[in-house]
Amino acid sequence: PAPSHSDRPPLRHGRRVLMLEGCVQPGLSPNTNTSAARVLDRLGISVIPCAQAGCCGALDYHLDAQATGLDRARQNIDAWWPHLEHGAEAIVQTASGCGAFIKDYGHLLEHDPAYAAKAKQVSERALDLVQVLGNEPLEQICAARNQRIAVHCPCTLQHAQKLGGSIEALLTRLGFNLTEVPDGHLCCGSAGTYSLTQPALARQLRDNRLNALESGQPEMIVTANVGCQNHLDGAGRTPVRHWIELVDQSLAE
């Protein structure tokens, strides 16, 4: 069965963060946010439940439903704002596509007098999970397994958020055995809804990307965006997971 909020650690630490649950990820990769919450808990950081927050708005916005996308952004700001005022350190995203869009809330709503200031602060407090964990003593709680791992860095992480190489650096720091991956700057073909609107081209891009990722004969491929994960894993070749699941599985007892 898919993990639920009841599978997560209780709200017990002084340090607290919000975490975007997302609209697609709970169905396609339900372990991701549960793994993130467990790892954060072991580091002394609790994840605040926030059921009022929903889809980040990116899919609507990029499918020419900008007004709906911005309404979703406003809804999320309203849901998160009280927690930010009461000490939540950050809004953590485990899907880099969502993270890129939330980091743009400040720009997208800069002309909305009711939301401009709040949107700017929300964007400033939005962090990809790798940014949060990169500053924490993960080495103290993780024991890396001797697996060959290939990393696919999503376009939204390396190009939009300028965090290329951050996952590789973190996993290397923890002792994981990473394979060389050529042409790491290339897209896997998921690209939001591109895999639905241009399936033939998306499959070609996916196969090219998998050939590069598999060139070092990894046992697993990890990534940081549910769209990439689902698209690559759909080929039925090397298993593809979110990188936080790998870290969660390596937690020292």
Polypeptide structure, described:
There is one protein chain. The protein has 2 domains: 5-133, Glutathione S-transferase Yfyf (Class Pi), Chain A, domain 2 (Up-down Bundle), CATH 1.20.1050; 138-249, 3-Layer(aba) Sandwich (Rossmann fold), CATH 3.40.50.1860. The chain has a 4-stranded parallel β-sheet with strand order 2-1-3-4, sandwiched between helices. The chain has a 4-stranded parallel β-sheet with strand order 6-5-7-8, with helices on both faces. By secondary structure, the chain is α/β, with parallel strands linked by helices. It has 14 helices and 8 strands.
Primary descriptors:
single chain; 253 residues; alpha/beta; Glutathione S-transferase Yfyf (Class Pi), Chain A, domain 2; Rossmann fold; four-stranded parallel β-sheet; 8 strands
Query: What proportion of the residues is helical, as a percent range?
Result: 40-55%
In the CATH scheme, what's the topology name of the largest domain?
A: Glutathione S-transferase Yfyf (Class Pi), Chain A, domain 2
Rg, Cα atoms, Å: 18 Å
Shape: globular
- Main sheet specs: 4 strands, parallel
- Identify the strand order in the major beta sheet: 2-1-3-4
Global mean pLDDT: 93
| CATH hierarchy class name of the largest domain | Mainly Alpha
Helix-strand pattern: EHHEHHEHHHEHEHHEHHEHEH
Strand content: 5-15%
